[in-house]
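Notes from hallway chat w/ T.B., transcribed later so I don't forget. T.B. wanted the structure written out for a chain they're using in a teaching module, and asked if we could keep both sequence and structure tokens in one place. Agreed to drop them here.
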Amino acid sequence: MTDTPAPRRPRDPAASGLPAPLRRTWAVIRDRGPSKIQFWFIALMVGIASGYAAVGFMRAIEFLQTSLYGTDDPRTLHSFAATLPWYWILMLPCIGGLIVGWILTRFTPDGRVRGPAEVIQASAMKEGRVERRAGLASMAASLITLSSGGSTGREGPVVHLVGMIAGWVSNKMNADGVTGRDLLGCAVAAGVAASFNAPLAGALFAMEVVLRHFAVHAFAPITIAAVSGSVISRTHFGDVTEFILPEASALAFYIELPAFLLLGLTSGLIAFVLMRSVFFAEDVANELQARLRMPAMLRPALAGLMLGGFAIFFPHIIGVGYETTSAALSGDLLLREAVIFAVLKVVAVSITMGGRMGGGIFSPALMIGALVGLAFGAIATSFFPDISGSETLYALAGMGAVAGAVLGAPISTTLIVFELTGDWQTGLAVMIAVSIASALSGRLVDRSFFLTQLERRGIHLAAGPQAYLLAMFKVSAVMKSPDHPKAPKEDRIRRAMNEGLFVAPGDTLEAAMPLFERSNSDFLAVTRLTEKDGAPDVLGVLLHVDALRVYNRALAATAAEEHS
């Protein structure tokens, strides 16, 4: 009698071509998960790949902007655009919007651009996996938008792009939820660090915004990835700060601090106006599209046409806006100019994002914040010229305050401001303005722009794990069959159906738990409508104790991860 040979594991394409020792190592990682040292090495590789992805995306924007607008220096885009014929400024965003509309209609199910909100959702609810097909389409759409004059930022697309890299690695490793989220944090940290040459801020941004916890076990690999992404950026762009202040700012500490408290309150309100303007524009565009029966492909083109019309008279709204931001930080704008440009930028960002053209909101928030801070500083220093610091100090604090309030990330935004400018002498003023602005705006919206985006779609991440974990479990995965020993008798199930105490197998526990609370019942019927006479079929029962058990386990796992 011969033994039946054990089935052989199919060969992993990811390991094909590797030497035998490396193939065995990869097999162990897939089957058992990586050790700590192995994971740090994987984090380094993910950081390098994400850094190159961010650099490649920025280089692609520069190349297309140079090709479309004819400028030699994309950082002075709006100054050069002011010299172009009006019809070229008008049509470029419109043509770009038409291409964006085709891409999103063809390759996404809903015509929406993916960004940091989807990455945050993937971290919380999808074990760190970010959708690829729609993500690639969103990256292409954002690239076209930013290159053709769309008034958004490049950081949002970068965050989603590197999230796809992390998701691909997680799938290849067969990573569990904790490992997948850590890899996602590594990729985001490297992408943000490469975008801003800010490794400290990149690491904290990943934990504060994406993972939404500061677990000790994730700190080392995320830091490794952030540093590697920053090194890649410095290799290609040099070790320079994004913005250069004309001189070190002076701060009369105790006398002037109340002014920065007021600036924080003002910035929090401006951040709220910016976020609400974007959501209002999106709602209006949805209503118009439905009423006019406008093809989804034309929506970004119409938004681009409106942007082009504004840009003929105010080219400052074109693109990311770093030239105007630098002018505000240098104090090269008048009070009237700062106010007008800030208002127009809010309108332009709302049109771009409401028109679903692509791009992120962080860079526009930096520009608006710098303009608001400069305007505030001009007023404050005119009232108290003898005890006031420089107007540029207020611009710097306002830049961080508005951006931090929009992102809901006061810690990482404060560090980003430091690392963008290289000025560490104004830390107290920036920290005060950022913290006050974030606290105020967080009460007016669902904590941040991204979490409010998700809340508007019915995804309740802002309330914490106790709110969104229920949405992760389908009734079909928890229910028991009608003949299970613990299931109620058939007459009780029928009575529950008649009283409206039933759910469908495709529902989640988020829909089931309120029924339990209202009825004080210990079970719900699980039913499905039949096609013949419409009478529901009983598929099983959902016991209250089973739903609570699953929920408690998920809460315990989340708490264990956050405190590991």
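Follow-up for T.B.: Residues 151 and 319 are 5 Å apart (CA to CA). Might be a good example for the class.
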